[in-house]
Design a protein that fits this description.
Blueprint lengths: L19 E7 L3 E8 L2 E4 L9 E2 L1 E4 L5 E3 L1 H4 L9 E3 L16 H5 L2 E2 L7 E4 L2 E3 L1 H19 L4 E8 L5 H13 L4 E6 H8 L8 E8 L4 E9 L2 E10 L4 H15 L8 H18 L4 E9 L2 E8 H14 L1 H11 L6 E7 L6 H11 L12 H13 L9 E5 L4 E5 L3 E6 L4 E2 L1 E8 L8 E7 L9 E8 L11 E8 L5 E7 L4 E7 L7 H13 L1 H35 L2 H19 L3 H14 L1 H16 L4 H12 L7
This protein binds adenosine-5'-diphosphate (ADP) and magnesium ion.
């Protein structure tokens, strides 16, 4: 293994020591690798001169692995072992499969390991395996093109990718023998490619319509600082849907109403794609469509016909656009630039509608297929240390709030969604019961008020707490999300120095669709959730009163109370216990007030007794000081 060189802080490596780094756009449909050549970002090409690698991997019976265009050749003859769109399965579990595009098109092996695997000629292959095969190919292209040693890559991921999906991407890179300098969000890379960060300030929108996914992001630029304000999208919308709409139109034009065989279906989609791509450049195209066997259709399709076929799909992208503006709390007039990303933004109708929606011209001067890889290459160059003066910071956001479960099954948000990362936030928690020596920490993700409606990320315990009365032990819980979006949670009890922590690497993640529906549910249920939260908080409060009075009764109830008085308080406690079981918040409040009132004499007598105890033989000033001391929260009940 080569030794790593370390340069002095702030000094660029000498020219011959240039450290080559690449940017990789690992796309659902197409993947690219780019690097900086004499300061100019360049997409690297394979021996056939192709820059864009279809994200397709074929597994042969002889264990051969074919990647890219060559793999696409097998799509018709060996569809089950020709894997495309594997990115959709990154970081996912078997539960996520049913009803997805992938489950309709492939056979899966759910028994070979914790991750669902494509059942191929060469055995089970996970999405990580498939991505690793693509990354290996991109790495080989890179190694042939760069002069020095390849120090690593910046790989882009959708802004929506959660922990598991980001981790899966990193795992794929290490399988491919590629060191990851950083994962960055695709829209952030696109904005970088346009140099929108340099001496610029303002808000930028990135509209990314690829083969099967749509992402929209709002970024905020301040000199040297780059922040993603909000993201939204649709994981089941892209150029593939345009292709299907065009096939329907073709069937109608050809008066073909039968079922297409799977081979004929793939041929029809290929024809549709050609029609679509040609109509991005021309006003009309002549088509000769071999439907099946002896059936052909030929004719001319105009751009207007195409526009009619896809118009509703294009409009569907505008809903997330509206939402992202609302989330980021900006007006259209605040937007400084709209960046177009993804092959499908070559469609003129898409450009027109988006420009109309945002009320300004859209940026298309950098090839929309390459813009993400180019931005990643620029960032890779900085991270490889070739630009020591460049203190460019990349900030992204977390898509869903992260928090902890607190008493009553409530979710306490520690880091709200759309907070920029990297981020560290601490919050203090305390014990609920007397002599509690352990704290169970449950990390959750989501917007809802109740834990039951959020997603569980991890559980761990902090043990060895000093046994004190409820509320006296302070535990600091720290949430840290690193620049790659991975979460670490730690809990520290200061007095004992006891520390517990966990890296959250959930066994499977959330799809963008799930994130969206979680957000939607939180909006739909906001009022009801708030009521639930208030009710739960009231219950917790009532429980606390019950605990406190119970423990006081146990300690000296028989000294201060007659048996009638004791019975009356017991009844009030039972009353409150019963109402806490129900959901009537007014009843709980009433029962709690009655108990507090009914036990006030008891509480007063106890206080008097302890004051008398303190005063015995002491000067009044000393007593006052002692009382004051005893009111400090830490020692109040010690
Ligand atoms: P992804 O980010 O999902 O990997 P890309 O950004 O590479 O996808 O976009 C792929 C999509 O772009 C495909 O649906 C493809 O048909 C479409 N596309 C590529 N070129 C054109 C074009 N000239 N006109 C219209 N659509 C195009
Ligand atoms: Mg893309």
């Amino acid at each position: 293994m080569a030794l790593l060189q370390i340069s002095e802080p702030g000094q660029a490596p000498a020219p011959h020591q240039r450290r080559d780094a690449v940017g990789i756009d690992l796309g659902t449909t197409n993947s690219l690798v780019a690097t900086l050549r004499s300061g100019t970002p360049t997409v690297l090409v394979n021996e056939a001169g192709e820059g864009s690698l279809p994200s397709v991997v074929h597994y042969g019976e002889d264990d051969s692995i074919t990647v890219g265009h060559a793999a696409q050749e097998y799509a018709v003859t060996d569809p089950m072992s020709t894997i495309r769109s594997a990115k959709r399965l990154m970081g996912k579990g078997a539960d996520d499969l049913p009803g997805t595009w992938l489950s309709d098109h492939y056979n899966f092996d759910l028994t070979s390991g914790p991750m669902p695997a494509f059942a191929t000629n060469a055995g089970p292959k996970t999405a990580i395996d498939v991505s690793a095969a693509l990354l290996k190919e991109l790495k080989a292209i890179a190694e042939k093109s760069v002069s020095g040693e390849l120090v690593g890559a910046v790989i882009t991921v959708p802004a929506y990718f959660d922990d598991a999906q980001r981790q899966a991407t990193k795992d794929a890179a290490s399988l491919a023998g590629l060191s990851v300098l950083r994962l960055i969000n695709e829209p952030t890379a696109a904005a970088l490619a346009y140099g929108l960060d340099a001496n610029d300030s303002g808000t930028v929108v990135v509209y990314d319509l690829g083969g099967g996914t749509f992402d929209i992001s709002v970024l905020k630029m301040q000199r040297g600082l780059f922040e993603v304000l909000a993201t939204a999208g649709n994981t089941a919308l892209g150029g593939d849907d345009f292709d299907e709409a065009i096939v329907s139109m073709l069937c109608e034009l050809a008066s073909f109403s039968g079922e297409l065989s799977s081979g004929a279906q793939r041929r029809a989609l290929q024809t549709a794609r050609q029609v679509k791509e040609t109509l991005s450049e021309q006003e009309s195209v002549s088509v000769d469509w071999h439907i099946e066997a002896e059936t052909h259709w030929s004719g001319t399709i105009t751009r207007e016909q195409l526009n009619n076929a896809i118009s509703a799909l294009v409009d569907q992208t505008l809903t997330p656009c509206r939402r992202v503006l609302r989330d980021a709390d900006i007006e259209k007039s605040d937007i400084r630039a709209v960046v177009m990303v993804g092959g499908s933004t070559r469609v003129p109708l898409v450009r027109d509608r988006v420009s109309e929606f945002f009320e300004q011209p859209v940026l298309t001067s950098i090839n929309p297929d390459e813009v993400v890889a180019i931005g990643a290459a620029i960032q890779a160059d900085v991270l490889a240390g070739n630009k020591p003066d460049n203190d460019l910071l990349l900030l992204d956001v977390i898509p869903l709030s992260l928090g902890l479960e607190t008493m009553g099954g409530l979710a306490e948000k520690i880091i709200p969604r759309n907070t920029t990362i990297p981020i560290a936030r601490a919050q203090e928690f305390t014990t609920y019961k007397d002599s509690q020596t352990a704290l169970a920490l449950h990390v959750v993700q989501g917007e809802r008020e109740l834990v039951a409606d959020c997603r569980s990320l991890a559980r761990f315990e902090l043990t060895g707490l000093p046994p004190r009365v409820a509320g006296a032990v302070r535990v600091q819980v720290l949430f840290q999300v690193d620049a790659d979006g991975l979460l670490t949670v730690s809990a520290l009890e200061k007095d004992s120095g006891n520390l517990a922590s966990i890296d959250v690497k959930p066994s499977y993640g959330l799809s963008d669709g799930e994130i969206e529906s979680m957000l939607q549910a939180s909006m739909d249920n906001a009022a009801g959730d708030m009521q639930q939260r208030l009710l739960q908080e009231q219950k917790v409060d009532a429980q606390r009163v019950i605990e406190a009075i119970d423990s006081a009764l146990r300690a000296d109830g028989d000294i201060h109370l007659s048996s009638e008085e004791r019975a009356a308080i017991d009844e009030l406690i039972d009353n409150l216990k019963n109402s806490v079981k129900g959901d009537d918040s007014a009843a709980i409040k009433l029962a709690q007030e009655s108990l507090e009132k009914g036990s006030s004499n008891f509480v007063e007598r106890r206080m008097n007794a302890s004051v008398k105890h303190l005063m015995a033989g002491q000067h009044v000033d000393a007593v006052a000081a002692q009382l004051e001391e005893s009111e400090k929260p830490q020692d109040a009940n010690d």
